Amino acid sequence: MEQGAGKRIVVIGAGIVGASLAYHLAGKGADVTLIEAEDIACGATGRSLGWINATYAGPDPIAQLRGAAINEYRRLETELPALKIRWTGALSYGASIDDIAQASATLLPRAEILAREPNLKHPPQQARFAAEEGALEPAPATHALIAGAQSFGARLLTQTRVLGFTLSGTQVTGVETTTGIIASDIVVIAAGIGTPHLTALLNASLPIAAAPVILIRYKTQADVVRGIISNPQMEVRRSADNTLLAAEDYLDDTPQNSPQAIALRTAKAIQNELHGIMSIEPESACIGLKPVTADSLPIVGFLPNVTGVYVCSIHPGVTLAAIVGRLASEEIIDGQSSAALAPCRPARFL
User: Fold this and answer.
1) Beta strands 134-136 and 51-52: pairing type?
2) Which pTM was predicted?
3) Cα(200)–Cα(211) distance, rounded to whole angstroms?
4) Which regions of the chain does DSSP assign to beta strands (E)?
5) What would the CATH number be for the domain defined by 8-69+138-207+294-349?
6) How confident is the model at residue 96 (pLDDT cuts 50, 70, 90)?
7) Which of 77, 119, 144, 201 has its CA 20 to 30 A from that of 52?
8) CATH 3.50.50.60 intervals, the chain
9) Can you state the percent helix, strand and coil of the chain, rounding each to 5?
10) Domain with CATH 3.30.9.10 in the chain
């Protein structure tokens, strides 16, 4: 607590990444203000499937981060009872056996696949099962992290847009907002797809694109899916309120590929894949915009051209929020540079 005591830190962005940063920084004694242009979890976080997916097929520069993601969420569960995670495991198939073998998961035969997901109509001969993986409800999890930060004294300002930054030479000294200037020693930018606009105000151009995905919520029979299922026909899980969640790729803006049209097509695919679905009705279908960099790796670290600005742009945000929140807080407060974050530095683009 002592090293962070009194250090004024402004975190921009109240998605799950910004919430994790605020929680970990405030827990180290920093004077944290979390600001959000709209509402909590209103961006990509609120439109995420919530899968804590720590496995990855093929070479992975951030394997160390993914490998630590599960344990960090286990830690957060003990610290924040309101953070609810369902550790159901994740079943994936449809890729080649070579891809499956490269991922750190168990290969299950058909009988064990059906034991885990008995409603599958077309179970494969083999599937990858990651027993340690699970899912959370992203918006409630974000609220739980922010409540934890507030218990350490952090302040939350929603409906507060950033207009610019105040500087003394190359040192950023504050954040100009629609409600006034907030003085700072460190500014942490975790604003998702809004990050490149904010860094551009500091003459730092970061190649972060808005990658659209579609999240669909269905009303259907309860418990047709036990865990997380990912195959070429569907990527689904059961939510805490017993609705069925599905994630789909965004194709284009034509009427036949609107979120509502894709929701109806996906519903038919789900019915074709699962027994026990007598009816399935889309409750909502919305587009989420993920912040994806030019090299598909996160951007985490201090901007090199100014002093006092730390950037956190992460995809996959849900998976990495807990581990990056802890490691970034250690870098910001304790000065402990993390080797796991070395591939993620913003300097590689600047």
Assistant:
1) antiparallel
2) 0.95
3) 19
4) 8-12, 31-35, 51-52, 85-86, 90-92, 106-109, 126-130, 134-136, 155-157, 162-168, 171-177, 180-183, 186-189, 208-220, 228-231, 234-238, 244-249, 280-293, 299-302, 309-313
5) 3.50.50.60
6) low
7) 119
8) 8-69+138-207+294-349
9) 35, 30, 35
10) 90-131+210-292
- pLDDT tens column, 294-340: 999 999 999 999 999 999 999 999 999 999 999 999 999 999 999 99
**Pairing of β 228-231 and β 90-92:** parallel
Classify domain 90-131+210-292 at the CATH topology level: D-Amino Acid Oxidase; Chain A, domain 2 (3.30.9)
Instruction: Please report the beta strands in 57-207, taking only residues with DSSP state E, as ranges in sequence order.
Output: 85-86, 90-92, 106-109, 126-130, 134-136, 155-157, 162-168, 171-177, 180-183, 186-189
Question: For residues 183 and 244, is the Cβ–Cβ distance under 8 A?
Answer: no
Q: How many CB atoms lie within 10 A of CB 291?
A: 26
203: exposed, middle or buried (Cβ count in 10 Å: 0-12, 13-18, 19+): exposed
